[in-house]
């Protein structure tokens, strides 16, 4: 398990720098991160105010009795004023990052974005992109060519597949992209605070398995984000559980209170971010006890300020994409040519490390037959040195085996010597003097005799009566020659000694009878 964790860490190793820009209505927050192999540190943190136009309130109060062209001119003037302020802010931020080398990611507040929960049939899972492209106009009050959008799968909910669709009107984003492009800045991605804060939390707690929720305050509104991490083999899979944004002042009078209580009961871990004092009644409860994710991230993000403002965290979450530490990928520019999972692809460093690993594995695999061949040659040389000694030992062993065989034969002969003498002695006693033996062979308790006699058949009863022989028979028919003598071939078994079993007779005592006295 530890080895798998180390391999996962090495797969994320790189040397990168990235910039996260969080664009609020009244300020721009820039964060620059650097990744050195596996360590992520904050290099720059800057904030620029965007002064609002003096006539903003007056413009917002323009009603229908004003001529349409006058209203358009006023709104155009307000837009131009904001663009000038934003341009000045970007100019002042340019010295703090490299617009060519650094990857730039933008984060916009959720109140500028549409977040819609969409349910699709499970059959659409294989062609999710095509189905959503067809359904987008039915789910959102915009035409397809009027918005930038992206989505995140949220798992199965019953018999439906749940998605969270994020969309932003092009007219709100095109001007900003054009302004940045005029400075040579081409953002790699644009996302909302939902995924930015979720990625910051996943980075801070190192994507441990389980579910967690964030309650974040953003001035006049607050949002609640839920995430879940599932163990999925090589790399944990992260999902968005829920996302809601409600006005901070009216939360207790609508569905906000019910949503907050319902979702807080379903997650074991709760984190807070920003000013949540408007959520009265809960400040002393579970939210007050929740850990601030700003302090949570300080342990892993080197160089960060100990008292980082809550508005800085979305900028950090956006910049995590550039250093390949983001878990949730939502990018409004994906359909315009940006790669949805570009930060997950292998970098040059990963490619080099993988190449070195492959070469090391190949060298390690080749080393085994090479080592075996070297050992074999070494053993052959040692065997050649020992060959004369081995041959001498083999000769001595053959001589030893021969001597053992001769010794065994002599020992066996010595053991059988008593039986042979007994047989010869018995034959000399039993066989008549007119019987001649030409050949006598004894082996393993069997005696074979060849010879001639005047009456060969008379030998069988003589030998049978002997206490030494038994089972006496002819090996072949006897023949009588010209000299009136029969040639014979007999075979007899050496009689085995019999063990006389002593029969033990039980004597039953008889009771004595008393004689009756005669009268």
Major sheet details: 5 strands, mixed
Strand order of the largest sheet: 3-2-1-4-8
**Percent range for helical residues?**
25-40%
Low-confidence parts, pLDDT < 50 over ≥5 residues? 54-60, 62-67, 340-344, 501-519
Describe this structure in words.
With 519 residues, the protein is of the alpha+beta class. Helices cover 38% and strands 28% of the residues. The chain has helices at 2-11, 56-60, 68-93, 128-139, 170-182, 193-204, 256-266, 286-289, 293-298, 312-319, 348-430, 459-464, and strands at 14-23, 27-37, 39-49, 103-108, 114-121, 147-157, 160-169, 189-192, 210-218, 221-230, 237-247, 269-273, 291-292, 436-443, 446-453, 469-480, 486-494.
Feature tags:
single chain; 519 residues; Alpha-Beta Plaits
What layout of secondary structure does this protein have?
Elements lengths: L1 H10 L2 E10 L3 E11 L1 E11 L6 H5 L7 H26 L9 E6 L5 E8 L6 H12 L7 E11 L2 E10 H13 L6 E4 H12 L5 E9 L2 E10 L6 E11 L8 H11 L2 E5 L12 H4 L1 E2 H6 L13 H8 L28 H83 L5 E8 L2 E8 L5 H6 L4 E12 L5 E9 L25
Parallel strand pairs: 1-4, 4-8, 9-12, 12-13
Antiparallel strand pairs: 1-2, 2-3, 5-7, 6-7, 9-10, 10-11, 14-15, 15-17, 16-17
Helix pairs in contact: 6-10
């Amino acid at each position: 398990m530890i080895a798998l964790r180390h391999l996962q860490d090495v797969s994320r190793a790189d040397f990168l720098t990235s910039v996260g820009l969080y664009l609020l209505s009244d300020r721009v927050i820039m964060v620059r991160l650097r990744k050195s192999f596996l360590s992520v540190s904050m290099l720059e943190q800057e904030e620029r105010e965007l002064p609002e136009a003096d006539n903003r309130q007056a413009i917002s109060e323009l009603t229908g009795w004003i001529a349409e062209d006058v209203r358009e001119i006023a709104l155009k003037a307000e837009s131009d004023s904001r663009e000038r302020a934003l341009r000045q802010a970007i100019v002042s931020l340019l010295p703090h990052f490299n617009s060519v080398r650094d990857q730039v990611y933008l984060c916009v507040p959720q109140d500028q974005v549409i977040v819609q929960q969409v349910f699709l049939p499970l059959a659409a899972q294989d062609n999710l992109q095509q189905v959503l492209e067809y359904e987008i106009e039915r789910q959102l009050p915009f035409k397809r060519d009027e918005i930038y959008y992206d989505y995140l799968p949220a798992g199965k909910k019953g018999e439906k597949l749940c998605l969270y669709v994020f969309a932003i009107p092009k007219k709100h984003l095109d001007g900003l992209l054009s302004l940045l492009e005029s400075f040579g800045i081409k953002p790699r991605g644009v996302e909302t605070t939902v995924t930015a804060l979720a990625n910051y939390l996943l980075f801070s707690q190192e994507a441990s398995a389980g579910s967690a929720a964030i309650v974040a305050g953003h001035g006049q509104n607050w949002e609640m984000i839920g995430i879940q991490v599932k163990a999925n083999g090589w790399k944990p899979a992260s999902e968005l559980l829920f996302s809601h944004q409600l006005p901070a002042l009216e939360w207790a009078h609508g569905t906000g209170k019910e949503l907050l209580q319902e979702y807080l009961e379903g997650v074991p871990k709760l984190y807070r971010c920003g000013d949540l004092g408007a959520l009265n009644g809960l400040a002393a409860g579970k939210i007050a006890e929740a850990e601030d994710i700003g302090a949570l991230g300080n342990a892993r993000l080197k160089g960060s300020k100990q008292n980082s403002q809550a508005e800085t965290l979305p900028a950090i979450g956006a910049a995590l994409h550039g250093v390949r530490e983001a878990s949730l990928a939502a990018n409004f520019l994906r359909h315009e040519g940006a790669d949805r999972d570009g930060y997950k692809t292998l970098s040059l460093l990963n490619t080099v490390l993988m190449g070195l690993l492959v070469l090391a594995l190949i060298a390690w695999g080749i080393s085994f037959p090479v080592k075996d061949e070297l050992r074999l040659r070494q053993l052959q040389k040692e065997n050649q040195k020992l060959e004369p000694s081995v041959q001498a030992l083999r000769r001595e062993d053959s001589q030893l085996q021969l001597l053992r065989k001769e010794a065994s034969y002599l020992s066996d002969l010595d053991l059988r010597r008593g039986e042979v003498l007994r047989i010869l002695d018995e034959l000399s006693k039993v066989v008549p003097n007119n019987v001649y033996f030409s050949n006598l062979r004894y082996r393993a308790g069997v005696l074979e005799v060849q010879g001639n006699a005047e009456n060969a058949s008379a030998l069988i009863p003589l030998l049978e009566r002997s206490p030494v022989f038994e089972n006496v028979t002819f090996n072949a028919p006897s023949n009588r020659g010209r000299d009136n003598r029969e040639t014979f071939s007999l075979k007899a078994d050496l009689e085995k000694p019999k063990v006389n079993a002593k029969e033990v007779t039980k004597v039953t005592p008889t009771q004595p009878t008393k004689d009756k006295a005669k009268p």
